[in-house]
UniProtKB/TrEMBL annotation:
<dbReference type="GO" id="GO:0005886">
    <property type="term" value="C:plasma membrane"/>
</dbReference>
<dbReference type="InterPro" id="IPR036179">
    <property type="entry name" value="Ig-like_dom_sf"/>
</dbReference>
<dbReference type="GO" id="GO:0033691">
    <property type="term" value="F:sialic acid binding"/>
</dbReference>
<dbReference type="InterPro" id="IPR003599">
    <property type="entry name" value="Ig_sub"/>
</dbReference>
<keyword id="KW-0130">Cell adhesion</keyword>
<keyword id="KW-0472">Membrane</keyword>
<dbReference type="InterPro" id="IPR051036">
    <property type="entry name" value="SIGLEC"/>
</dbReference>
<keyword id="KW-0430">Lectin</keyword>
<dbReference type="Pfam" id="PF13927">
    <property type="entry name" value="Ig_3"/>
</dbReference>
<dbReference type="InterPro" id="IPR007110">
    <property type="entry name" value="Ig-like_dom"/>
</dbReference>
<feature type="domain" description="Ig-like">
    <location>
        <begin position="12"/>
        <end position="150"/>
    </location>
</feature>
<keyword id="KW-0812">Transmembrane</keyword>
<dbReference type="GO" id="GO:0007155">
    <property type="term" value="P:cell adhesion"/>
</dbReference>
<keyword id="KW-1133">Transmembrane helix</keyword>
<dbReference type="GO" id="GO:0030246">
    <property type="term" value="F:carbohydrate binding"/>
</dbReference>
<protein>
    <recommendedName>
        <fullName>Ig-like domain-containing protein</fullName>
    </recommendedName>
</protein>
<dbReference type="InterPro" id="IPR013783">
    <property type="entry name" value="Ig-like_fold"/>
</dbReference>
């Protein structure tokens, strides 16, 4: 007869907040409360606090809990870094004024006279889908380029 303890059936709780590229985040792993007076050993197979980037998207991270008596349990999650980054660059002298807008909205998301403008939308959702327009103004010339963005849910 094989006896399986309840510790093996209860997985740790792994909390991953929304991940935004470049913003430091902390992942939390909580052990099931099974052994009063005998604290478990928590092991991470990856970093605990880090700055998410596009390269982290799709990475598996595991929290492993070891109790006394060689009893272990673990939980694995796949990281999802959600963001949208649109960049528009123009070479000119003097530098062009660049604006990012969204079609059918009167809102200017980014405006700069440095010759390059990046529109970063953290925690992107389907509501961020649409046509984004980069407009460059130089002296009395105006040039625009459009980017159609479609955000889908998994």
């Amino acid at each position: 007869m094989i006896h399986v303890s309840s510790a093996l059936k209860q997985k740790p709780t792994l909390v991953v907040p929304p991940l935004t590229e470049g913003q430091q985040t902390t992942l939390t792993c909580t052990a099931p409360g099974l052994c009063p007076g005998s604290p478990p050993n928590i092991t991470w197979s990856s970093t605990l606090t880090f700055n998410p980037s596009a390269e982290h998207h799709g990475t598996n991270i595991t929290c492993k809990i070891s109790f006394t008596g060689d009893t272990t349990t673990e939980e694995t999650v796949t990281l999802s870094v959600t963001y949208l980054n649109l960049t528009c660059s123009v070479e000119s002298f003097p530098p062009s004024l660049i604006k990012w807008t969204k079609h059918s909205e009167n809102k200017v998301y980014v405006q700069t006279d440095s010759g390059s403008a990046s529109l970063l939308i953290p925690n992107v959702t389907t509501e961020d889908s649409g046509r984004y327009i980069c407009t460059a103004e130089h002296l009395d010339e105006k040039v625009s380029v459009e980017a159609d963005v479609t955000v889908t849910c998994k």
